[in-house]
Write a structure and sequence with these properties.
Elements: H1 3-23, H2 31-34, H3 48-64, H4 69-89, H5 116-129
Helix pairs in contact: 3-4, 3-5, 4-5
């Protein structure tokens, strides 16, 4: 099976999982505030959700085995596709945006953020280092 289809399939599965996960949080009105994956670490706007971007893009590198800049650019483009898919699917979810009393990374777990690209790239850099 084509590696591209595997990765796009993984992305669709993760999007579905995020929807299911978000709807299963105990207080649906304040899901971002109650999400254990959304709590910031080290007093930064860095959470387990951000770490998941690093891990997922490291796994993409394991699947694709990039050796050239073009190979890494293709993997980066999976992040662009992911961003667009998540943005389009969750376009009308601004009503979920919450201001929490404590630090969270995402004010709306359904909306992607531009700094996700940084974490995606860190996953690729981790692959290069290892």
């Amino acid at each position: 099976m084509n590696k591209y289809f595997i990765i796009i399939g993984l992305q669709i599965c993760v999007l579905i999982w995020i929807k299911i996960y978000g709807s299963g949080l105990t207080n649906n009105n304040d899901k971002e505030c109650n999400d254990p994956l959304n709590k910031t670490l080290f007093k930064l706007r860095f959470s387990i959700w951000n770490m998941s971007h690093i891990i997922i893009f490291f796994i993409y590198c394991l699947i694709m085995k990039p050796v050239s800049f073009q190979d890494h650019f293709e993997i980066f483009m999976f992040g662009v596709v992911w961003y667009l898919m998540q943005y389009i699917i969750n376009y009308n979810t601004d009503k979920y945006k919450k201001k929490c009393n404590h630090s969270v990374a995402y004010e709306n777990i359904y909306k992607p953020r531009l700094d996700d690209f940084v974490y995606n790239t860190l996953g690729q850099i981790l692959y290069l280092i290892i």
